[in-house]
Amino acid sequence: MSDMDLVAYINEENKRRKRRRIVLTNGDHAQNGWKSHVYSAVIGNVHEKCSVTITKENISSRCKTFENHYEAISKMLSQSGFGWDWINNKLSIDSEDVWLKYVAVRNLSFPHFDCIVHM
Fold first, then answer.
1. Disulfide check for 92: which of 37, 40, 85, 105 has CB 3.0–4.6 Å away?
2. 70 with 13: CB under 8 angstroms?
């Protein structure tokens, strides 16, 4: 995942949750994460807008989570039966059978899948 893809993903997530945007510019990414002034800006913005104190480690952890989600969704989209709903900005699945086969191959379990399907 490139730096610009990660920035775009973070921005979309922020718009959905808080309708706020944190703009991270290209070139502010160091070898082992964001440059220190970016972390400071994010920490300050989150504290100012949400009254929550976070740390550099919280931000790094969230970025890793985003990267893992991006990777999982990218792998799904590369397989037959999965697509992207551009109107609702979510993963679409052709049929329940496609999902059940995907879960079976990966030996995943979802204890309340039947309840989630009806939501």
1. 85
2. no
User: In terms of DSSP H, where are the helices of the chain?
Assistant: 3-18, 36-50, 56-77, 96-105, 113-117
CA torsion, points 43, 48, 52, 54, in degrees to nearest 10? Answer: 10
Query: Given CA atoms 83, 89, 95, 100 in this order, what sign does their dihedral have?
Result: positive
Packing angle between helix 56-77 and helix 3-18, nearest 10 degrees? 100
Q: Is the pLDDT of residue 88 over 90?
A: no
- How would residue 84 be classed by pLDDT, with cut points 50, 70 and 90? confident
Expressed in angstroms, the distance from the first to the final Cα of the chain is: 31
How many CA atoms lie within 13 Å of 46's alpha carbon, on the beta-carbon side? 15
Q: Which among 27, 26, 57 is positioned nearest to 39, based on CA atoms?
A: 57
Higher pLDDT, 102 or 18: 102
